Amino acid sequence: MPRTTTLDCPGCPPFRALTFDSLGLVKVVEAREKQVAVPRVVDRWGEPDSSKCVLAVSLTDRKSDPLLAVARKNGQVEVLNPVNGDLQAAIVNINDTDIRSEENAIVGLHLFAKQNLELASRSCTLMTCSTKGNASVKSIELTNSSTESICVGSSKTWSVCAGGNITCCKVDGSEKYALFGGKGVEVNFWDLDNCSKIWNAKSPPANSLGIFTPTWFTCATFLGKDDHRKFVAGTNSHQVRLYDISAQRRPVISFDFRETSIRAVAEDINGYSIYIGNGSGDLASVDMRTGKLLGCFTGKCSGSIRSIVRHTELPIIASCGLDSYLRIWDTKTRQLLSAVFLKQHLMHAVFDYNFNSEG
């Protein structure tokens, strides 16, 4: 019998979201009613397979030719149509490495949106980064078939770390810069045009007891869409850090949040506040101008939060994680609006911003 939430959920505005789980399934959740909507699963893409667990996703949500990239545990990267789930391209071993995919899985994925799709030769540009720090930018031909796609044009491949494991990767709004960080890897900042490192974080000093906290970044996001200089990173030692590459190499603001590792972080559209989720299911919003906690979201999750996404138009955020629920929250009141049980451990979620409930 499926688990249910004990809270009364008032419902939410119309939306469409895609969720990605540990068995490789993509589920489409929609709420269509105009006033108070109840979200439901309306479609499911793929068949259950633990080797196809979704590790990273990227969506270009433009009105014409939207694309969705999905990186799986078996090393395959798929490009799908986010409207109907049709396969547009499939790439195997995109980083050209001989290491087994389990040891060098893709942890960073970005589908570039600022490009022109020609009718004669449709292609997309992908940036990927593996656990061992192998990053690449390649243009892939869209074939509309299950056969392996080929690389078109020039490609770039470089290493973003000499040791340690990369666990988080993020590309800024201009798609010219990217940051990387991980276990034993301080956050570093790269120019994607030249594949050159332009900034590297410095480890915080030891505390008053002389104890040095080992480097272990778990998630990161840019604070604003138009400013690549400021970004927020979460650590395994339940710290949230704000960096400004134009100011200094150490964090501008750093604070602890609860007692478990930070597993997800997302920026708000206002450009100064963020949403953070940790391994024990705590979800909160923070003003990064001061580092002050704005408040926690009412309705505790029962599992580790793995993804938080903010809707660009509606005053809602979505969170999902290992308790198998997709939850919709009100950003103003921080109340739980709705919860959908999706059976599998959820790894990621994205909003379809062009969704029309009347379409």
UniProtKB/TrEMBL annotation:
One of its GO terms (biological process) is ribosomal large subunit biogenesis. CDD domains: WDR74. SUPFAM superfamilies: Quinoprotein alcohol dehydrogenase-like (SSF50998). Transmembrane segments: none annotated. InterPro entries: Quinoprotein_ADH-like_sf, WD40/YVTN_repeat-like_dom_sf, WD40_rpt, WDR74/Nsa1. One of its GO terms (cellular component) is nucleolus. It comes from the Eukaryota. This is WD repeat-containing protein 74. It comes from Senna tora.
